[in-house]
């Protein structure tokens, strides 16, 4: 008799993928400015380390929250005993308001429709348990966050069917790609329960355009399926455009309080916007009472620590803090992203034009020996072991085109980023000097840049007119 | 309650079966007591006639010690001026291995809670979302949908949710009875195992809580050894939920399955089959902090459970604080000693008070509750209907929320779990007084009304005892006939978690 469950022996947790192997290499030889200056620089981790000082300053000014006190009185006992899966009401209220603030207060979030979870990892899994039977499928645009294979499929038994997006249009979702994915699922005899998107996108760093959002809402309406919008990066938008949430689109299409709105669910977390992944704060927002009810019960398996809820309810209720924080966060992310982009350019490398997220989607197709995933993996190994940068290969994100890499920029100091770019430049130059630096490769780079610019123009034409950021 | 078909939907937007079935167990009538409590909660000064909550297995007896420690150790918090220099590193830390210092501190605490008779390997400590998360995770690791775990009854009501709901695993109870004080025997397990296998069930293992919830009893070491031998012989798993390990009253003995693993020869125990679930919710009284632990002697299970812990990691803020607290040996030693002392005293006061009302409890040496014998008060012996009726009387007339044995799958009507560690001394005395008043009032009133229906008794002592009991039954009968209504409409409040 088989001793352990099939989940133990399957690799549906996805952790044999290169995404995680790069981490392992990094663990063995991590860069440290002083102690290990030749170590591997971690650029595969989408963390936001740019604004801790703001939170630390707030903590210094707010000893009550820090000391588990309310109005000077200790509430330790109440917090120690508080395990109600409805969550601390003050916290949910503050979280709802924070989510509204991120969306320019254009839409409202009802705290009673929020379900807390242990990070968005848990939130996404819980939603799958609520919406899909084992063997049913969700459509996801590629490239997508590698952790979804684990979060959405592993213990739930749900399936993912990719919506293939390509560089030809900046990896935007098209109607034909959607239809194709839906049909593919049917060919595989999989019942499609919904679509899940991350907006802003991981790994692309771009926001879904209104056109794409409208397309998605129309599609789920016609097919009578769900739409999950993981908006974990909503507070990392640093471009001139504002973030358009699926909730904005529901409002603009006058679909609020309709049956369709019950099938649109938002996932959120404080891991990226506030840079607090250790605190495990995730949330599901749903207009469907049954989903809220079931997910609330399921949250028993991963509640947010009460001391964390209390601390964050105080932090997020301070509107002066949240306003300042969101602005400063944007500013610093923008500067840091620019630093990465220029550094890449100096190495003759371009990336997808982005205005959100903690990473860039970098185009290294011209560095591949052949246009294959084997070549991508070879290049990746060189970058990890020789250039000593841990970045994430596009194949780990299920990208259909070899040569793209996700490179994070918000989890290190300016100096470290500088060093990383230097290393990359040296590597590219040394490989280039082994081939002839011909005019044609210069032209290739120029034309790539031009294509990227025209993608940008294509994208911009659907939104408000904005100046070219470059 | 089947799945809902949304308007116009064919397949599409239906929710999953899990989302729409009742397998979470929260629609059961057993939450009536909670709802009544929510509507009329006792408070010593503000609502002295309200319902006293005795259905919640919380440990509130030693929170003062923890509170004081936190006050004296501001560095243990990443938010205080003394500790904030660690804030960014800790807030950023989401490694599912957990903070090393945290794992070491937990291993240290677990060892001390077992009298230092065993040590735990920090590398085998895996985090989870409370014991709730730990139990579910271990099921995901050991069993596939449709597989079976044997669970001795009476058992913690929420196991139906934790072990079965999302995992698809089935529970087959191993019924224990009062005839031998509800002791779990190897014979009973063997019998249940054979029966399950004969009905073509795929039995993956045995799971039980030790010390027991709801019984408060500790399994003797010999039986534990024999159970370990049994699972090894049959190649099935053993999961022991030791969440109440440190609630053992002062002076009593608790043998963890870890000790047995240490003592037995490798030919008698296949350690790959042995797993422990733990938590700080009961021993330390910190259910809000969500600290659950999966501890397995099986490397594959440790590895898998660790990956799964992503779905319920302990907040790094909490890990950091507890790492500091639980590596403070003088604090831990004092805490464990004080806690078991206070629990023992509280248990003694409560059971003595109950005796004055001629109410007996199963003899227990651990836990945050007693297993109370009210069989003599049932209107109709051996009737679960009578148990529920009696339960409603206790809620409505005695104004105590207690948990009826049937909610723990007990096969004999008339037993109730009553918690004693979630209130202060004054409240406990109010509860005892209410019980004593109620019992004496009703036996006095009906002193003249001895019914012919009473059975005759053999000797004088028994006669006196039985007379009191039968009169009590009579008095309850009158209450039954008074037309007791059930405690009102279902309130929208949800019950607190750990019953």
TrEMBL record, chain A:
GO terms for molecular function: 1-aminocyclopropane-1-carboxylate synthase activity; pyridoxal phosphate binding; transaminase activity. Keywords: Ethylene biosynthesis, Fruit ripening, Lyase, Pyridoxal phosphate, S-adenosyl-L-methionine. It is an enzyme of class 4 (lyase). This is 1-aminocyclopropane-1-carboxylate synthase. Its EC number is 4.4.1.14. GO terms for biological process: amino acid metabolic process; ethylene biosynthetic process; fruit ripening. 1-aminocyclopropane-1-carboxylate synthase (ACS) enzymes catalyze the conversion of S-adenosyl-L-methionine (SAM) into 1-aminocyclopropane-1-carboxylate (ACC), a direct precursor of ethylene. It catalyses: S-adenosyl-L-methionine = 1-aminocyclopropane-1-carboxylate + S-methyl-5'-thioadenosine + H(+). It comes from Brassica campestris.
TrEMBL record, chain B:
It catalyses: S-adenosyl-L-methionine = 1-aminocyclopropane-1-carboxylate + S-methyl-5'-thioadenosine + H(+). Its cofactor is pyridoxal 5'-phosphate. GO terms for biological process: ethylene biosynthetic process; fruit ripening. CDD domains: AAT_like. It holds the Pfam family Aminotran_1_2. Its EC number is 4.4.1.14. One of its GO terms (molecular function) is 1-aminocyclopropane-1-carboxylate synthase activity. It is an enzyme of class 4 (lyase). Residues 52-435 form the Aminotransferase class I/classII large domain. Pathway: Alkene biosynthesis; ethylene biosynthesis via S-adenosyl-L-methionine; ethylene from S-adenosyl-L-methionine: step 1/2. Keywords: Ethylene biosynthesis, Fruit ripening, Lyase, Pyridoxal phosphate, S-adenosyl-L-methionine. InterPro entries: Aminotransferase_I/II_large (IPR004839), Ethylene_sulfur-biosynth (IPR050478), NHTrfase_class1_PyrdxlP-BS (IPR004838), PyrdxlP-dep_Trfase (IPR015424), PyrdxlP-dep_Trfase_major (IPR015421), PyrdxlP-dep_Trfase_small (IPR015422). PANTHER family: 1-AMINOCYCLOPROPANE-1-CARBOXYLATE SYNTHASE 2, BIFUNCTIONAL ASPARTATE AMINOTRANSFERASE AND GLUTAMATE/ASPARTATE-PREPHENATE AMINOTRANSFERASE-RELATED. Belongs to the class-I pyridoxal-phosphate-dependent aminotransferase family. This is 1-aminocyclopropane-1-carboxylate synthase. The lineage of its organism: Eukaryota, Viridiplantae, Streptophyta, Embryophyta, Tracheophyta.
């Amino acid at each position: 008799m088989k001793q352990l469950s099939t989940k133990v022996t399957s690799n549906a947790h996805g952790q044999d993928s290169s995404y995680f192997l790069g981490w392992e290499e990094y663990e063995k030889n991590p860069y440290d400015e002083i102690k290990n200056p030749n170590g591997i620089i971690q650029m595969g981790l989408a963390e936001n380390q740019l604004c801790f000082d703001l939170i630390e300053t707030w903590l210094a000014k707010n000893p009550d929250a820090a000391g588990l006190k309310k109005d000077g009185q200790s509430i330790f006992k109440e917090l120690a005993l508080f395990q109600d899966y409805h969550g601390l009401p003050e916290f949910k209220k503050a979280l709802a308001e924070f989510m509204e603030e991120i969306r320019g207060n254009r839409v409202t979030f009802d705290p009673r429709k929020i379900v807390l979870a242990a990070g968005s990892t848990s939130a996404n899994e819980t939603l799958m348990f609520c919406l899909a039977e084992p063997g049913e499928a969700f459509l996801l645009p590629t490239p997508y966050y590698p952790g979804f294979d684990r979060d959405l499929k592993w213990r739930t038994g749900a399936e993912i069917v990719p919506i293939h997006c390509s560089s030809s249009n900046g990896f935007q979702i098209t109607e034909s790609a959607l239809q194709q994915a839906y049909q593919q699922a049917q060919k595989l005899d999989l019942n499609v329960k919904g679509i899940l998107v991350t907006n802003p996108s991981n790994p692309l760093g771009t926001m879904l355009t209104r056109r794409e959002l409208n397309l998605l809402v129309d599609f789920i309406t016609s097919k009578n399926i769900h739409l999950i919008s993981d908006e974990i990066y909503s507070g990392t938008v640093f471009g001139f455009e504002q973030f358009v949430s699926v909730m904005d689109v529901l409002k603009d299409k006058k679909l609020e309080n309709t049956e369709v709105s019950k099938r649109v669910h938002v996932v959120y977390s404080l891991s990226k916007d506030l840079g607090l992944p250790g605190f495990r704060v995730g949330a599901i927002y749903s207009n469907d009472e049954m989903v809220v009810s079931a997910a609330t019960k399921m949250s028993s398996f991963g509640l947010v620590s009460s001391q964390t809820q209390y601390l964050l309810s105080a932090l997020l209720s301070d509107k002066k803090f949240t306003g300042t924080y969101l602005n400063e966060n944007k500013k610093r992310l923008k500067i840091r992203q620019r630093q990465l982009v220029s550094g890449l350019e100096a190495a003759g490398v371009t990336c997808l034009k982005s205005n959100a997220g903690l990473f860039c989607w970098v185009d290294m197709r011209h560095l591949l020996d052949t246009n294959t995933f084997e070549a991508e993996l070879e290049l990746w190994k060189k970058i990890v072991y020789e250039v000593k940068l841990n970045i994430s290969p596009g194949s780990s994100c299920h990208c259909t085109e070899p040569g793209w890499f996700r490179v994070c920029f918000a989890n290190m100091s300016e100096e470290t980023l500088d060093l990383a770019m230097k290393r990359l430049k040296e590597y590219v130059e040394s490989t280039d000097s082994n081939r002839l630096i011909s005019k044609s490769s210069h032209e290739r780079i120029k034309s790539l840049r031009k294509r990227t610019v025209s993608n940008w123009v294509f994208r911009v034409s659907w939104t408000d007119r904005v100046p070219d950021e470059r | 309650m089947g799945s809902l078909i949304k308007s116009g939907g064919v397949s599409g937007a239906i929710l999953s079966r899990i989302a729409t079935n009742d397998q979470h167990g929260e629609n059961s009538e057993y939450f009536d007591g909670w709802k009544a409590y929510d509507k009329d909660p006792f408070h010593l000064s503000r609502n002295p006639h309200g319902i006293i909550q005795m259905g919640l297995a919380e440990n509130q007896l030693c929170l003062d010690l923890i509170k004081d420690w936190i006050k004296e150790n501001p560095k243990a918090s990443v938010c205080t001026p003394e500790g904030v220099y660690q804030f960014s590193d800790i807030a950023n830390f989401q490694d599912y291995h957990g903070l090393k210092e945290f794992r070491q501190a937990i291993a240290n605490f677990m060892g001390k809670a077992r009298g230092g008779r065993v040590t735990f390997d920090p590398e085998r400590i895996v985090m989870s979302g409370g014991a709730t998360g730990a139990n579910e995770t271990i099921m995901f690791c050991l069993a596939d949908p449709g597989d079976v775990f044997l669970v001795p009854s009476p058992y913690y009501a929420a196991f139906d949710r934790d072990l079965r709901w999302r995992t698809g695993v089935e529970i087959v109870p191993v019924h224990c009875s009062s005839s031998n004080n509800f002791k779990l025997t190897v014979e009973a397990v063997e019998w249940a195992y054979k029966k399950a296998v004969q009905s073509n069930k795929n039995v993956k293992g045995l799971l039980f809580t030790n010390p027991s919830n709801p019984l408060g009893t500790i399994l003797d070491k010999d039986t534990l050894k024999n159970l370990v031998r049994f699972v090894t012989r049959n190649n099935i798993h053993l999961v022991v939920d030791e969440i109440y390990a440190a609630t053992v009253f002062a002076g009593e003995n608790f043998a963890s399955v870890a000790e047995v693993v240490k003592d037995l020869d490798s030919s008698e125990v296949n350690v790959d089959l042995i797993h422990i679930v733990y938590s700080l919710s009961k021993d330390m009284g910190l259910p809000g902090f969500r600290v659950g632990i999966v501890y397995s002697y099986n490397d594959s299970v440790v590895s898998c459970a660790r990956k799964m812990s992503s779905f319920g990691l302990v907040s790094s803020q909490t890990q950091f604080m507890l790492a500091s607290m639980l590596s403070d040996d003088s604090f831990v030693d004092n805490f464990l000693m004080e806690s078991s002392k206070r629990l023992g005293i509280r248990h003694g006061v409560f059971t003595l008070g109950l005796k004055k009302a001629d109410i007996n409890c199963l003899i227990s040496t651990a836990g945050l509750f007693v297993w109370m014998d009210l069989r003599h008060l049932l209107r109709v012996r051996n009737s679960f209907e009578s148990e529920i009726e009696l339960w409603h009387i206790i809620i409505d007339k005695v104004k105590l929320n207690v948990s009826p044995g049937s909610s723990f799958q007990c096969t004999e009507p008339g037993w109730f779990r009553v918690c004693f560690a979630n209130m202060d001394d004054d409240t406990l005395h109010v509860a005892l007084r209410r019980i004593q008043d109620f019992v004496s009032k009703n036996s006095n009133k009906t002193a003249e009304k001895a019914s012919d229906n009473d059975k005759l008794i053999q000797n004088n002592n028994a006669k006196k005892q039985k007379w009191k009991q039968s009169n009590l039954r009579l008095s309850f009968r009158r209450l039954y006939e008074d037309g007791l209504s059930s405690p009102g409409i279902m309130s929208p409040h949800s019950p607190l978690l750990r019953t």
